[in-house]
Write a structure and sequence with these properties.
The complex is a heterodimer of chains A (about 200) and B (about 90).
Chain A lengths: L18 H7 L1 H4 L4 H11 L6 H28 L5 H7 L2 H7 L24 H25 L3 H30 L13
Chain B lengths: L1 H29 L4 H25 L28
Helix pairs in contact in B: 1-2
Chain lengths: ~200, ~90
């Protein structure tokens, strides 16, 4: 189970609204390489992990991704406060606004709703951890793209924090993968084959 | 305003300590025999617990079960994470 704590992992305090930036950053909420997919990917894959290291790593990183989802939702929420109709029209946010107003909805920046097709769960530790390594790099690259488009330090600081976490997670997943390769002589890769 | 600033400063300290503990925890998952990381982890968790206790005494609960015995129910009263005065 989980226990909710009333604090963000890293502070988000955005003074100036920016609906265009909000729409871009929303991709890390419900886009193809976003935090919703990350959390559900790891928390689903963990059930078929074969050893202590891989179970703990997927459980805990999956949990941290939920905290990142909350940070992204907070950034988007704060960037869309007190918008005038003119700002909504001029920024291009009108296309999101017509369906969701300023509600936080899991979709990509282009408006494609989140899909479980973004993730896999194969009960095959090599396949799953290799996907996880790629997922962290794709998320890191997305944060690089966001940083290229962002100019407000209030936005840049939390995005830089999230980008750095992708790199740490990539490192931990690499170590978890090596722990499986080290035990590969003794056990099959696939958890199903041990049943 | 003063109170708001000191609340944010204390919350920031908790965030820093919790983050250090979380990151050490991920490291210990893949390096379970690392004595140095374990010592740092234990010290950081203790520090975070003390800070959390101080925060909750002054500004209200961070988790629902730490809500005090008085009414109105404190958990739903103080600001949520996405609200500007909170994070």
């Amino acid at each position: 189970m989980w226990i909710y704590e009333k604090k963000l992992q890293f502070p988000v305090k955005i003074k100036n609204p920016d609906p265009k930036m909000a729409q871009v950053i929303l991709s890390q909420y419900g886009g193809p390489d976003g935090e919703l997919g990350a959390s559900l990917r790891y928390l689903s894959q963990r059930f078929s992990m074969p050893n202590e290291i891989t179970k703990a790593t997927l459980n805990d990183i999956g949990t941290e991704e939920l905290a990142h989802l909350e940070m992204i939702g907070t950034i988007v929420y704060q960037l869309t406060r007190n918008l005038s109709t003119e700002e909504i029209k001029a920024s291009g946010f009108d296309k999101y606004f017509v369906d969701h107003n300023t509600g936080i909805y899991p979709a990509s920046a282009a408006g494609v709703p989140w899909s479980a097709a973004y993730i896999q769960s194969k009960a095959d530790v090599i396949a799953d951890l290799t996907e996880d390594l790629a997922a962290e790099q794709k998320a890191r690259a997305t944060y690089d793209n966001i940083l290229r488009l962002a100019d407000d330090p209030d936005v840049i600081e939390p995005i830089k924090f999230l980008r750095a976490r992708e790199i740490v997670h990539f490192q931990r997943f690499g170590e978890a993968l090596r722990s499986v390769q080290d035990m590969s002589d003794k056990r099959c890769y696939s958890a199903n084959m041990n049943k | 305003m003063m109170e708001n600033n000191s609340r944010q400063a204390l919350l920031r300290k908790i965030q820093e300590a919790d983050f250090f503990a979380l990151d050490l925890g991920l490291y210990l998952n893949t390096h379970p025999m690392c004595e140095r990381a374990l010592t740092l982890y234990k010290n950081t968790v203790r520090e975070a617990d003390e800070l959390r206790h101080e925060f909750e005494e002054k500004y209200g609960p961070l988790t629902a079960t730490r809500s005090s015995g008085k009414t109105p129910w404190q958990w739903s009263k103080n600001p949520w994470t996405w609200e500007k005065e909170r994070s």
